[in-house]
Amino acid sequence: MTACTILFFLFMLLKPCYLQASGHIGLADICLMACFALLGGQKLLHRQPLRFSKDRLLYGFLGMVVLLNLVCSVKLRDPEYLKYSLFWIYNGCAIWTWRTMTCRYGQAFLAGVNTAAKANIVVQLAVLASGRGRIYREYWGAVRYMGTFDDPNQMAFFLFMMLLLIYLYRCRYGDRSFWIFFVLAVPVLAASKSTGIWLGVILFLVFCLARQIGSLKKSGRISRKQLGIIGAGLALTLAIGLYWIWPPADFDIHAVDYNLLTRIQEKIWKIMNGGLYGLVMDRGEERLFLYPRYLLIGAGEGGFARFEAAGPANELHSTWLSVWFCYGIVPMAALCVWLYRILKADTDRMWCAIGALLAESFFLINYRQPMFWMILLYGDVTESEPLRQTEVRVGTALRAAALRGKRALSILTDAK
Prior knowledge:
The protein is an all-alpha fold.
């Protein structure tokens, strides 16, 4: 392994180790930036092109982000905006590093990423089994599990990303062990009690099931009658499930056993009693309606006390709505066009993971996590020209070896 690959795998394995509070620089971040610096230094030393062209729109978006936050910081005399610009620059460096590493090392590198993702799941399960994981306490005394992290949602999202990375590797190169690690991750995800992540997990399973049924129908292995029976069975299962989890009118999260089921019931109860407005308030999205002008010009990321009329939420808890509100319509459009272009490389199987991640991101802020972008880029980087050429060369070599073996066997047979 080269120094670059060692640094990258250290980033993956050290990412769950939170020695400081969220938002601080960790050992994993240092390893990733060292990998970025080493890759960039090698390219400059050998006078190789840095290859920014495919992500030109993304880096244009990052430029607009930095400029807007700088203007807000100077105008409002608040350095907080610069901190969020650094988060975006960090992720821009991570995206370039991911694309460069996959193009340089191909499937061997992605196999290492796959192994590191599996190791992270096993480690978090071991920490849970040992009883040494960290605990998050709600203000009324209820607890949620967060493992080696300092936030239960962060832990759950990290494991969700690990599962998606393993699944995407399975889609591209085949890995029959995915469902084993899915089962291993379930107890830890359940202990986190993160409803947003479980929404993503359930959507992923639904998309996988729908794709499998569609594939069977397309191949003619199930008839219309059988498809109707399957649909009726799924509808009945959904109805029974909703009846089972539907909260009573006097539901109170403070007076029941605090677990994943009751947290889901709490979300349903909020929608029942407050409508979608209650859900909007819960995610801090009311500011979209109270300050609509920022959807056009951008509010900048920081200074959240400006939006007191929108409730106590510090941030707007939605990846895509937060980007739109903070940076306005033009940067958001640039980001969307870039995403559209890179996501075209994903196969229908890969869309089970990508679709679930995109949907889940409407309820949590994920864009500060480098692996979030790596997952979105997975299909595109594995379809890149250098990687395809590597795979073609490997495939050609294997076919040539098989042909030589066949000829040798034929010679031996003729000799006999």
